[in-house]
Design a protein that fits this description.
Helix content is about 65%, strand content about 5%. The chain is globular, with a radius of gyration of 30 Å.
C-alpha cells in the first residue's frame, strides 16, 4: 500500500509539472537578418522562454537544429542562396550528404580495389626494373635491405617520405574540421603544432647515425641501452602508437569512401589497408620511397586545384565577405567577436596544445619515423627531416584554410556529425566541382591513406620480426626466416587494421575523438625514448617508471577533468562524449607529456645508469646485423651495409656539426611557428580584408614551393641514374673488391701477409691498404701494367 501511494503521488506531481516542462522546452523558429548585408536572411531555433528571442543560441542556426526527424525536412536556409552542382537549392536540407552520394558505388570499389591493384602492378614493375640494374641480387633481396632500404637514401627522398608519412587522413580531413569549427586558428595550430615534432626529430635522426647506425627498430636501441624490461615497455607504447595512427587512417578513409560513393564502410575498412599490402610485402621499405613520391605529387596537385578554384575562382575578397556574414549566422564560441577571422580563439588554442603534445608521441614513439632515419644516408638525415617538415606544413595549413573555411563561406548544410567524420573537404569538393571534385578528394585521400599505411605496415612487421620473433621466439633465426616473417607481418597488420577500424566504428568513436585523445595514451613515452639517445645517465628504472606512472596519471587527469566537462551538463558522467571534450583532452595530454620526464629525471638522478658509454651502444647494435642471406660472392663491407661508406661528409666530425645545426635550426623554427608567429597576429583581433589577403598569399606561395621541392628535388638527386636507365647504359666490368670487415683484423692480416707472403684477397686486381694507426702498409700488389687502378675502394678498417 505504501508503494502504491508513493507511485500515485509521483504520477500526480508529474501531471502537474507537464505544462511547465512543455513551456520551458518549447522552441520556435525566428527569421534573422544579417546586420552586414540586410539582403541575407536565415532561420534559427530559439527557446520560447528565452529572454531575448532575437538572439539565437550557439548552433541554433545549424541544419540539424532545424531538422524535423520525422519528416526529414528542415527550415534551414542557405544564407547566400547557393545551389548544389545539380542546380538544386540547399534550403530545407537536414544534412549535406543525408544518405545521398555524389558518386556511384562502383567508383568507390574502383578507387579502393582497382587503384590498389594498379599500384601493386606499377610498383612491382619498378622494382623489377630496379633489380635488373643491380648486380648484387642477394643484397637487395636480403632481410637487411627489406627493413633498411640500403641505409643510404638521399635527403630529397627522405623529405618526400616524411611528407607522405605525416600526411594522414586527418591531415586532410581533421584539419578542415577544426577550420570549420574554430576559424583560421584551426589550420594554423594544426599545421604548426604538428610540424615542430618533425623538425626536432631531425636531432634524433642524426643521433641514430652517430650512435647506432646498424639498428632495425627503435626498440632495439632500448634493448641495447636498458635491457629486456625497458624493451618490452617501450615496445608496448610503440605498438599502441601504430594502432592509433592506423585507426585514424582507416576511420577517415572508410568514412569518406562511404559518404561519397556508398561503398560499404566495413568493406572499405578492410580493403583500404589490404590495397597497400602487396607492393609493401614485395619490395619492403625501398619501394615505399618510390610510392611516396607519386602519392605526394598527387596530393599536392589535387590540393593546388582546390586552392586555385577557391581563391582565384571565387576570390579571396569574396571569401572574406562571406566569412563575416557566416560569423553572424553561426558565431564561434570563445572566439573574439565570434568571428572565424581571428587568432583570439580559446578553443583553437586548446586544440593547438593538444595537437602539439599528442603529435610528439606519434612521431617520437612511431617506429616508421625511426625506420626512415635508419634508411637515410647519414649526411642526408637532418636535411630530409627539416625539408620534409617545412614542406608538410603547407598541406594542412593550405588545405584547411581553403576547404575548411570555404565550407563556412558557402554556408553548406554540414552537420556536426558529418564534420566529426571528416566530411568537410568532400562536401566543398562536391559543391565546387561536382562528381569530379568527389573523385579528386577520394583519389587524394586514398593516396594519403595508402602511403601512411605502407609505412605503418613495414614498421610493425619489423617490430614483430626483429623485436619479437628474433629476440624472444627464435634467437637463431636466419635472414631468410626473418624476411618471411616480415612479409607475413605486413599482411597480418593489414588485416588487424581493418578489425580495429570496425571496432572503432561500432563504438561510435570518430576521427576527431582519437586525434585529440591520442597523446593521453602515448605521450608518457616521448621523453624516455628521446633520453635513450641523448642522456647518458638516464636509467632503465627511470624510463620504465616514467612511462607507466605517466600513463596512469594521464588517465586519472583525463577522467577527473571529464567529470566537469560542459558536455556532461553537470551530471559528472565519464563517457565518450565527455572524454572527447577539449579541456579533459588537454589535461590528459599535458600530464602525460610532462609528468613522465619529471619522474624519469628524478629516478635517474637517484639511481643513474653506471658505467655506460655511447660506444657500447654502437658495438651492441652492430652485432645484430643479419648477413647470412647474402651470397659470399656479393658480400659488402660492414660500413656499406650500415650506410656509412660515403666519405668525409658522413664522418663523426661532420655528423657532430650537423647535429649542432639541427638543434639550433629545428629549435629556432619551432619557436617561430608556435610562439612568434601567433603573437604577431594578436594585434589584428579580427582580420581585415588586406590582412586576410596576406594570410592567403602565404599559404598560396608556401604550397607551390613545397610542391615544387617535393616533386623535383628527389628526381634531381637521381638524375644520373635515370639517364643511365633511359640510354640503356649498364655497368660493366669488375666492381672494386670489398672485404667483409668482420672477417678482417688489419693487424692480424698484415702479420700473416708479412710472414707467409699470402694474398689477403683472392682477387689479384686490387690494391689493399691496411691502416694501422697512422701508418699505411702495402700488402697487395696490382698485376698487369704495374700501375695502380683508380677503382680502389677504402673500406672501414682496411
Amino acid at each position: 500500500h505504501r508503494t502504491l501511494n508513493m507511485q500515485r503521488r509521483r504520477f500526480i506531481l508529474f501531471l502537474f509539472l507537464v505544462p511547465f516542462i512543455s513551456i520551458a522546452n518549447a522552441q520556435a523558429t525566428i527569421k534573422v537578418t544579417s546586420k552586414r548585408d540586410p539582403t541575407k536572411t536565415w532561420e534559427c531555433l530559439v527557446p520560447v522562454a528565452n529572454d531575448d528571442t532575437t538572439k539565437p543560441e550557439l548552433g541554433a542556426c545549424m541544419p540539424e537544429a532545424l531538422c524535423d526527424s520525422t519528416t526529414q525536412t528542415s527550415k534551414w536556409k542557405n544564407a547566400f542562396g547557393l545551389k548544389d552542382y545539380k542546380g538544386v537549392s540547399y534550403d530545407g536540407r537536414c544534412a549535406f550528404f543525408g544518405g545521398k552520394t555524389a558518386l556511384d558505388v562502383w567508383f568507390g570499389w574502383f578507387i579502393v580495389v582497382g587503384l590498389g591493384a594498379i599500384f601493386a602492378i606499377v610498383f612491382a614493375g619498378l622494382q623489377w626494373l630496379h633489380d635488373k640494374q643491380v648486380k648484387k641480387q642477394s643484397v637487395v633481396h636480403s632481410s637487411e635491405h627489406f627493413a633498411g632500404a640500403g641505409r643510404s637514401v638521399p635527403s630529397g627522398w627522405i623529405a618526400c617520405k616524411v611528407v607522405a608519412m605525416w600526411t594522414w587522413a586527418a591531415s586532410l580531413l581533421q584539419s578542415s574540421n577544426v577550420a570549420y569549427k574554430y576559424g583560421i586558428s584551426g589550420p594554423f595550430w594544426y599545421a604548426s603544432g604538428a610540424t615542430i615534432q618533425v623538425l626536432l626529430f631531425a636531432v634524433l635522426a642524426v643521433e641514430i647515425k652517430r650512435k647506432c647506425p646498424a639498428i632495425h627498430t627503435i626498440c632495439e636501441v632500448i634493448l641495447a641501452r636498458w635491457g629486456t624490461t625497458a624493451h618490452l615497455t617501450i615496445m608496448c607504447f610503440v605498438i599502441a602508437t601504430q594502432l592509433i595512427v592506423t585507426g585514424m587512417l582507416i576511420l577517415g578513409g572508410a568514412a569518406v569512401v562511404n559518404a561519397l560513393s556508398g561503398m560499404d564502410i566495413y568493406a572499405a575498412s578492410f580493403l583500404i589497408p589490404l590495397a597497400a599490402a602487396p607492393f609493401t610485402m614485395s619490395g619492403g621499405l625501398l619501394v615505399t620511397f618510390v610510392s611516396s613520391w607519386l602519392q605526394v605529387a598527387i596530393i599536392y596537385v589535387v590540393m593546388l586545384i582546390f586552392l586555385w578554384k577557391i581563391y582565384v575562382g571565387l576570390g579571396a575578397d569574396q571569401v572574406w565577405e562571406n566569412l563575416m556574414i557566416a560569423s553572424e549566422k553561426n558565431p564561434v564560441s570563445d572566439n573574439r567577436e565570434g568571428t572565424y577571422l581571428t587568432m583570439w580563439s580559446t578553443n583553437g588554442l586548446i586544440f593547438g596544445i593538444c595537437n602539439i603534445v599528442g603529435n610528439f608521441g606519434t612521431v617520437f614513439v612511431d617506429n616508421s619515423y625511426w625506420q626512415n632515419a635508419i634508411a637515410a644516408r647519414p649526411s642526408g638525415t637532418y636535411k630530409g627531416y627539416l625539408i620534409g617538415g617545412i614542406a608538410w606544413f603547407s598541406i594542412p595549413f593550405t588545405m584547411a584554410t581553403t576547404l575548411g573555411l570555404a565550407a563556412r563561406a558557402m554556408d553548406l548544410p554540414i552537420t556536426k556529425t558529418e564534420a566529426g567524420l571528416g566530411l568537410v573537404p568532400p562536401a566543398v569538393a562536391v559543391h565546387i566541382l561536382g562528381e569530379g571534385g568527389a573523385f579528386l578528394i577520394l583519389f587524394q585521400l586514398f593516396m594519403a591513406v595508402t602511403d601512411t599505411a605502407c609505412a605503418e605496415q613495414i614498421a610493425s612487421s619489423s617490430i614483430f620480426a626483429y623485436d619479437v620473433f628474433k629476440r624472444y621466439l627464435h634467437p637463431r633465426a636466419t635472414g631468410k626466416q626473418i624476411l618471411l616473417v616480415s612479409r607475413i607481418g605486413v599482411l597480418v597488420w593489414s588485416i588487424l587494421s581493418g578489425v580495429l577500424a570496425v571496432i572503432l566504428f561500432e563504438l561510435k568513436i570518430g576521427l576527431g575523438w582519437i586525434y585529440v585523445a591520442m597523446g593521453n595514451f602515448i605521450g608518457s613515452a616521448v621523453f624516455p625514448v628521446a633520453f635513450a639517445l641523448t642522456w647518458k645517465r638516464c636509467s632503465a628504472l627511470g624510463a620504465v617508471l616514467g612511462c607507466w606512472i605517466g600513463l596512469g596519471l594521464s588517465m586519472l587527469a583525463w577522467c577527473l577533468a571529464a567529470q566537469t566537462s560542459k558536455l556532461g551538463k553537470g551530471s559528472k558522467v565519464v563517457n565518450v562524449d565527455t572524454l572527447g571534450d577539449d579541456l579533459p583532452s588537454l589535461a590528459g595530454n599535458l600530464v602525460a607529456l610532462f609528468s613522465s620526464p619529471i619522474i624519469c629525471v628524478v629516478v635517474s638522478l637517484i639511481w643513474p645508469q653506471q658505467g655506460f658509454e655511447w660506444s657500447q651502444l654502437k658495438t651492441r647494435t652492430e652485432e645484430w646485423l643479419i648477413e647470412d642471406d647474402i651470397d659470399e660472392s656479393e658480400r659488402v663491407t660492414h660500413s656499406e651495409l650500415i650506410g656509412m661508406n660515403h666519405g668525409e661528409e658522413d664522418s663523426e666530425e661532420e655528423l657532430g656539426k650537423v647535429l649542432y645545426f639541427s638543434y639550433w635550426f629545428g629549435g629556432g623554427l619551432s619557436i617561430v611557428l608556435i610562439v612568434l608567429w601567433p603573437l604577431l597576429t594578436l594585434p589584428e583581433v579580427s582580420f581585415s580584408k588586406s590582412y586576410w589577403n596576406w594570410w592567403v598569399a602565404i599559404g598560396f606561395i608556401w604550397a607551390h614551393c613545397a610542391a615544387f621541392v617535393t616533386m623535383v628535388y628527389p628526381i634531381w638527386e637521381i638524375r644520373a641514374d635515370i639517364y643511365s636507365f633511359l640510354v640503356g647504359k649498364k655497368e660493366e666490368g669488375e666492381e672494386p673488391a670489398r672485404i667483409h670487415a668482420d672477417a678482417l683484423d688489419p693487424a692480424l692480416q698484415l702479420k700473416k701477409a708479412e710472414t707467409s707472403g699470402e694474398q689477403i684477397t683472392q682477387n689479384p686486381e686490387i690494391l689493399l691498404v691496411a691502416q694501422t694507426g697512422m701508418q699505411s702498409v702495402l700488402v697487395g700488389q696490382a698485376f698487369g701494367s704495374g700501375t695502380v687502378s683508380s677503382d680502389i675502394t677504402l673500406v672501414s678498417g682496411c
